[in-house]
Design a protein that fits this description.
The structure holds 2 protein chains of 2 kinds. Chain A is mainly β. Chain A has 4 helices and 34 strands. Chain B contains 7 helices and 12 strands. The longest helix of chain B is centred in the first third of the chain and has 23 residues, at 2-24. The chains are: A mainly beta, B alpha+beta.
Chain lengths: 399, 339
């Protein structure tokens, strides 16, 4: 008896042996079996989720480096948190080099999948969904990597987040590619992060499609070097359902791309259609702040060639009727607040991009003092932008 | 499979070692140093030998009870805290902060509900200081109260709190232990900081050679049980927030990305939440704009979340299924009196 016990309990610390695959099926005791597999995994192990619905009452967590958690597909292996009683998220990852692949997280009480301080993480072919549709009682973030270096989020789907579907915060070297985000307040949000590539995503029926924010007062500051490329951003028409008090609660329905503060954002080769407030909005941070590390201006933002379809035709802005009349029934695609820190790092657009400016003169100025007029920037012919994105080794790991 | 065979071999070695140790002093109740400092995860609490009588929580030789001035609140559980120091070792004071423990030491905390003969031990959590760092493990007591068994995956138990609320009490899983006991990715103790221990206890430890000195800044946190409406609210509120929240809400802690730093020593008003906007609070913000709005406890996110037991809103996220009315009252007074 005693010998058996000792053998069993030594399992967890016997790391240097060959990686193993542990399979966990749904059904009786699934939560305890899955938790034990996650906790007792050795570095490099694979945990396979069987097909079906795992009914969970508590959050899951993974704190072992190099583990792969893999399901049979985003509609086949479902972690169902509808009856969740505790913890702040469905799944929390705190270790490096983790791969999450092919499963769904449904109806978590807080966030969906959070990874914190988890470098070189892959989120692949996942689904996070609040199945009751957009509601302020839904959790805040669907896919939520934070304070990490090396993040790849791809081929995943997030529905119903009351803040951002995919939120990457306080991180660097990021690729968010080929995802579908719908019926969230914000589809994808890159916040206080550097070197992010957001491409080939579809953002639709959110309040706002793609957000790039830099906020004061956070441990990691200085967001920038973000590329938004080849995304399809259309019909972001869901009324804002974020709980008040959160920064995204101020996002206007019908926003395609919103850049707030940041140093270096390139928006090119995207397709926009049916975003009733603005396809692209570039503004400074508007709230008072005391953080001396913070620069509230949107600097070095470039709007390159994009396909701009119908939009700006029902702007959720004060003076809407007057604005529509002045611009002939629809506002042009790019909305700028007119706030340049310096002439050199002010908004740049390529030839053919039209827009309008609030012509504000200082950060934090009331919108009632805006003097709207057409954008009168001289078009930029050439622009340079650094290569950004997740380290190549992350994509190599999936091959 | 290969791993299993190797483990069996290892376990036989470990078993041999343990038996040899027992053979030298069979009659004295001694803590099993091999279980504390070794590599495995003992399956039962009794294997450590921390208690001469587990059910009555009578400690073994070398195991010393202690108390905190301001304790962490866990649904009103009674907590029985102990420190184990291997023979010939001592604690080292490090200013007002965490006492430094030698390798081989352990911290033991038992959670119980009910009074007198009705008292039921629910779980015992151990922190083991091993050569490669601290390890945290939860043990769940059986219904007979004769043994507690390793609960790597945690568990839930329905019980009634001292104020009469029926709750589903959560025993944390091994990873959740680390969620709170973590700084910069490593497991650390939280409770035994010199500032939150009594002078009397530290003096006693000093006398016995179990502590190297009385540190300056020790015993400076208020004794929570001594709070009355006449007490100044601020030190009690700040002590409460430090003990109940700051293990996550500090740089390097589990909630560092929030930017909220509730440590006792933090004196930047913005860092402790005053006029600080939420970052990732979601519906936890409750429609409020600031963590702490001076003079307005009912518009302060921090109090809103303390005063909730609902998943996704409630803080702390772990170790709480009901609201600490006393804690809420003190923090409420602190915010209300704030200019």
């Amino acid at each position: 008896m005693k010998r058996f016990a000792l053998a069993a309990v030594l399992l967890a610390t016997a790391a240097p042996l060959a990686a193993e695959t542990h399979r966990v099926e749904p059904g009786e005791g699934a939560q305890a079996r899955l938790l034990e597999a996650l906790i007792l995994a050795a570095p490099g192990d694979v945990i396979e989720l069987g097909e079906g619905r795992f009914t969970l009452t508590d959050g899951l967590s993974l704190d072992v480096d190099g583990v792969t958690l893999r399901g049979a597909g985003m509609d086949k292996s479902i972690l169902d948190f509808t009856g969740q009683q505790g913890a702040g998220e469905g799944l929390l990852v705190t270790s490096d080099n983790v791969t999450l692949q092919g499963f769904a997280v449904e109806n978590p009480k807080g966030d969906g999948i959070k990874s914190k301080g988890a470098d070189n993480i892959i989120y692949d072919s996942l689904r996070v969904e609040w199945t009751g549709g957009p509601k302020s009682t839904n959790g805040a973030y669907g896919i939520y990597p934070v304070e990490s270096k090396g993040v790849l989020v791809q081929r995943s789907k997030v529905v119903g987040a009351s803040d951002a579907g995919i939120y990457v915060g306080q991180s660097r070297d990021i690729t968010v590619r080929g995802n579908l985000v719908e019926y969230n307040v914000a589809g994808i949000e890159i916040e206080n992060s550097r070197n992010a590539l957001v491409e080939n995503n579809i953002a639709t029926h959110n309040t706002g499609g793609l957000l790039v924010f830099d906020l004061p007062g956070l441990p990691v500051m200085g967001g920038g070097n973000v590329i938004l490329r080849k995304n399809v951003v259309f019909d972001n028409d869901t009324p804002n359902f974020a709980p008040p008090g959160n920064i995204v609660a101020s996002v206007r329905r019908g926003t395609g791309v919103l850049v707030m503060a940041n140093d270096g954002v390139l928006i090119e080769d995207n397709a926009f259609e049916g975003n009733a407030t603005a396809h692209v909005m570039v503004i400074a941070y508007t709230q008072p702040f005391t953080d001396t590390r913070y620069n509230p201006h949107a600097r070095n933002v470039i709007v390159g060639k994009n396909a701009f379809g119908r939009g700006g035709d029902d702007p959720q802005l004060d003076g809407k009727e007057m604005l529509l009349a002045a611009f002939g029934g629809a506002l042009p695609p790019v909305l700028w607040d007119g706030l340049a820190e310096t002439p050199d790092n002010a908004l740049k657009v390529v030839a053919g991009v039209t827009g309008w400016s609030l012509n504000l003169s200082k950060v934090g100025q009331s919108l009632s003092e805006a003097q709207p007029g057409p954008l009168t920037l001289a078009p930029t012919e050439l622009y340079m932008f650094p290569a950004v994105g997740a380290p190549a080794e992350l994509e190599a790991r999936l091959k | 499979m290969k791993r299993g065979a190797a483990l069996l071999a290892l376990s036989l070695l470990a078993l041999g070692g343990a038996m040899a140790a027992r053979a030298t002093a069979p009659e004295v109740l001694r803590v099993n140093d091999a279980a504390v400092a070794g590599e495995g995860m003992p399956r039962t609490l009794s294997e450590y030998g921390f208690f001469a009588d587990g059910a009555r929580q009578v400690p073994a030789d070398g195991v010393t009870p202690y108390a905190l001035n301001t304790p962490l609140w866990s649904d009103g559980a009674e907590k029985l805290r102990f420190i184990y120091l291997p023979q010939g070792t001592q604690l080292t004071a490090d200013g007002e902060g965490l006492l430094q423990f030698p390798v081989g030491a352990a911290i033991i905390k038992t959670f119980a509900f009910g009074e007198g003969a009705d008292r039921r031990l629910i779980e015992t959590r151990v922190l083991l200081h091993r050569a490669d760092g601290w390890m945290a493990l939860p043990y769940r007591w059986n219904a007979e109260q004769t043994e507690a068994t390793l609960a790597v995956a945690g568990g839930r138990i329905d019980l009634v709190t001292p104020v009469g609320e029926a709750i589903s009490y959560a025993i944390p899983n091994k990873n959740q232990c680390k969620t709170c006991h973590s700084k910069d990715g490593a497991v650390i103790p939280i409770g035994p900081k010199a500032r939150n221990l009594s002078v009397r206890w530290m003096a006693d430890m000093l006398d016995r050679g179990a502590l190297d000195r009385l540190p300056p800044g020790g015993a400076t946190m208020p004794v929570w049980a001594g709070y009355t409406g006449e007490s100044p609210a601020e030190p009690f509120a700040r002590a409460y927030l430090d003990v109940n929240c700051a293990h996550c809400h500090q740089p390097g802690g589990g909630a560092s990305n929030s930017g909220l730093d509730l440590r006792w020593e933090q004196d930047d008003p913005h860092a402790i939440g005053i006029m600080k906007r939420p970052v990732a609070a979601g519906r936890g913000a409750g429609g409020h704009d600031f963590s702490v709005l001076p003079g307005e406890p009912d518009k302060s996110i921090l109090l809103y979340r303390m005063d909730s037991a609902e998943g996704g809103i409630a803080m702390p996220e772990l170790g709480k299924a009901s609201v600490d009315k006393d804690g809420v009252a003190v923090v409420r007074r602190w915010i209300a009196e704030m200019k």
